[in-house]
Fold these 4 entries.
Entry 1:
Amino acid sequence: MQISFEDEKPIFIQIAEGIEDAILTGAYVEEGQIPSITEFSVNFKINPATALKGINLLVEEGIIFKKRGVGMFVQKGAVEQLKNKRKEQFFDHYVKNLIEEAKKLRISSQEILRMVERGFDE
């Protein structure tokens, strides 16, 4: 996970997305423990409150849960939940824009599919 202090995206969001990525890639497994807030703050040289804010986003979404006195853990089912979330984001941020531009250019859905297939082949 990398944090960019020059990125427009707030650091706490970058922390949350980095944890999500680690869950999706299997670096953090379901029901497994994630690093502590202190570890995140030391490793990335950020304020612990910033790290906590990012982790709390995932707690609110049910991706992470806290075991009192033990630490933070990945919720069972988190991978599937994150895949669904990311697919919706992908549709909202990329596919809708693609279709909007295609309509302006009068590109058919068949042409778009051919372009996508070409992209996968390259």
Entry 2:
Amino acid sequence: MADNTKPEVEFPEGPAPTELQITDLVVGDGAEAQRGGMVDVHYVGVEFETGEEFDSSWDRGQSANFPLEALIPGWQEGIPGMKVGGRRRLVVPPELAYGPEGAGHRLSGKTLIFVIDLLGA
């Protein structure tokens, strides 16, 4: 079971990946997240290049509940198959996050790292 503490995100070495990278840090043993389903998560997001945190449900003191389809493509691809109680790291290239530089979001053009704890599916 993932501990109930905000994860530290390791600063990556080398160039940003061009493909979605999925790494299970803790494998859960609960219900499995399904494509198109609802998920209840705690997460922290940092920019790949700077290591700067841009978002964290931990800092808000409450988990986030989303339909997977409403999320960025990297989450739609990277969360299904994860089990409740697990912690997963996703490294998401811009195409699967907020699009290329200039796409209108402050994180457009950026590779993002998320560490996600799945609380419910």
Entry 3:
Amino acid sequence: MSALRILVPVKRVIDYAVKPRVNKAQTGVETNVKHSMNPFDELSVEESVRIREKKSAPGGVEDICVVSAGPPKAQDVLRTAMAMGADRAIHVETREGEGDLEPLGVAKLLARVAAEQRSNLVILGKQSIDDDAHQTGQMLAGLLGWPQATQASRVAFGPGADEVRVTREVDGGVETLRAKLPMVITTDLRLNEPRYASLPNIMKAKKKPLEKKTLADFGLSPERRLKVLKVTEPPARQGGGKVEDVDGLISKLKELGAI
């Protein structure tokens, strides 16, 4: 098996424990809150590091590179990923106020990064918890012409040369897919339990290389195909009512036009 050069995209999102609030202009949510790494991306970083630690890939792991596109503060999640065990990072800096790249834009960027870094395995979260688009991994595989395995709950290697087996949960059971490198894998919550970055590793991460780039370096621009018209809170749920017996229930359902 070829030595693995793993590319792990990560995204800075509003922390999963924070309840998002719509801003006054109703153009999005308030962003002046705590941010952290997208939880699904934490799984991707952890799995990449475990593949190296457990020596589960016969050819070994040559390099683990994390990449993120976002404002200067996105460097925080890259440093966290390196503290978890990634070797180096690439920060594709975007200007404040430009907004997040759309899934297709991210996929185009990652395709060019993968080619430049000579990656043969991309492991990324199945979705980000801010827009929940669940599209980037599939688009990336399509642009690269690589096989893909989505929503992985287990990743194994062999027995054939450059062969990867991915188990994923489906309705009523599990499904195992087999493909050859290079390929794209998206991660699901049952894959692993991400580690906490220890203080010594956080200090070491400060010395690991972090390369700064721009979209222009990859021949791309922040083109937007979608326009947000309005963002509002979901309507408050109305309380239910009580009925005395089955006849009362039938009468109420008839009133509501349900039967």
Entry 4:
Amino acid sequence: MRILIVEDDHLLGEGLLAGLRLAGFQPDWVKDGIAAWNALQSEEFSAAVLDLGLPRMSGIDLLKRLRAAHSTLPVLILTARDASADIVAGLDSGGDDYMVKPCDLDELAARLRALLRRSAGNPSPMLEHDALRLDAAARRVEYEGRAVELSPREFSLLHELLLNTGTVLTRAQLESKLYPWGEEVESNAIEVHVHHLRRKLAPELIHTVRGVGYMIQKT
């Protein structure tokens, strides 16, 4: 799950970047509202963690611009402003949740997972598909009652496909969701991960739509 961090405080940004990586996310980080807007127009993200007090374009203005463009991207507001008026303004401008700095990274990760579940129309913390069960919080996968060891990238790919059950995701979409900036992507990386998932779980689990991409079909 690729997350955009929008935070101008260097120390906090570094901490969020490291903490979300440890929690299994693929975070990228920008330091002002204009850079965030440009990133959101050119890349695919699963959610954003957004500071309100940003240079060049405020978090409130960025939210308004996003929602005016009909973006449904889940946005968690992270701000030092604990006055209720600022929180209300952020939520009314299109924010989906908020936390006040300093924040607990485990709670931040949990709130992001909840936002992603709700945006996918699945409020349950456990994703299930036939004999497959995926627990995003514990980063655990079970198939037919047995635990299955997956690499971090395999887990992320499976999670994306399960969140979008019934929808075909292109290779470009999956690469954008799984790989942050600056990380080289092999031309056949997605195909290799799909092959490993089929071998570890079930050959028929992930369906190839030729010339388009991959999907897990609804049951």
